[in-house]
Specification:
By secondary structure, this protein is an all-alpha fold. The N and C termini lie far apart (about 40 Å). The longest helix is centred in the first third of the chain and has 14 residues.
Amino acid sequence: MDIPKFDEKQGEDSGTHVTTYHLWCVSKSMVDDSVWLHLFPRTLTGNAAKWYIELPRASVNTFDALAMEFLRHFQLRIRYETGTELLTSFRQDTATHISDHIHEWRRM
């Protein structure tokens, strides 16, 4: 199948992937949300496929909900409402690692 793939490699944009997938489905005359929901995991490889596998079962039941979860996870974090102010307020000491602060910022 000529379905577009996403692997979270550098330079890949999750928003572009969702848009491309949407256009691909429309070009194939697929209009049923359940088909979109069923096929989307086939567009994911590597870390993105791992992310999908680890989603809680029945946590998304529409393509829109799945797309939002996908974008929340893979989109650049600067697009979140929490801006860089939170990030710049963190102070690292010997007991913390920078990744702890990054995870906290992403969680917020």
